[in-house]
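Researcher: Please predict.
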Amino acid sequence: MRHKGRGVACGWYGIARTAAMDRAAVWVELDDGGTVKVATGVTEIGEGVLTGLCQIAADAMGVHPHDIVLADNDTARVPEAAHAGATRMTYMIGNAVAIACREAFGKFRAAMGAYWEVAPESIHAHAGQCWVEGSASKRMSMEHAVHVLKKERGIVIVGSGLFTSAHTALDPETGAATPWQSYVFGAQIAEVEVDDDTGEVQVLGVWAAHDVGRVVNPQQVEGQIEGGVVMGVGHTLMEDYIQVGGKTTTPGFAKYILPTSVDIPQVTSVLITEPDPKTPLGVKGIGEPSITPTAAAIVNAIYDAVGVRMTRLPATPERVMAALREKRAAPQPLRRAA
């Protein structure tokens, strides 16, 4: 017989390095053609950070995302961005890009204000066009503006940005610390169906609500959450690395089982977009936090469905059946007569 159950779990995650100073630096230049060069040692490992950085730079500089050129990220030639991990990429490097672009755009406004003989704060730019607020004639493309500044006035617009996330280690006497500057919080609900004849668990759906700060690219954030849930399903129900005598018995995917398309539940993502007050952009992150509550939510759902508490992962059909047999064999408490 199949039984349905639901479980809920919450989680939190500290962004960036733990109890240590974290930092990222960026150079930017408003270049010929109205393009913007961004130089940083960021490493793309599949999380889509380059797309996010292009969006951040384009928004700050008033150009199209396709006008952003990400320079060679060889750390011998560009500022350090540090490692790819700890949910820090958008949080650390994105903020550094924003700081650098805001500095560069401030110089651009000052230079164009002098050229048009207007106050710098009246200069605006968007989608590759710049103009003076309230003027119908003082308008030109960013490409033309760069040409004017470089060729006629000898001005090259550059900017630099450094973002530092200040952490403190644990005090050995009091235990007080600020191990992370910002935190991501989340909650997930899992619905499962458990077959008490075979022990098989099917995850039917996961509802995942996460505090992600200001969202740069909603589709990417939802993709990160969905990917984290998929990893959580594998971790909870099937992925089992086994060693015997110091040697693995699961050397390949024929024995180390991963979720396939038939195992993936419907994932409903809910983005809580309260900006982080401690950063210029208000962004946070969602890399690791999306996987944190998944296993606990699924295990709680199994308990809700069939009344057994799984204390070892993965909760394979064999282990679920063993827990069910133990439950059935246990003496049942006597009920008092009414």
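Model: The first helix runs from residue 49 to 61.
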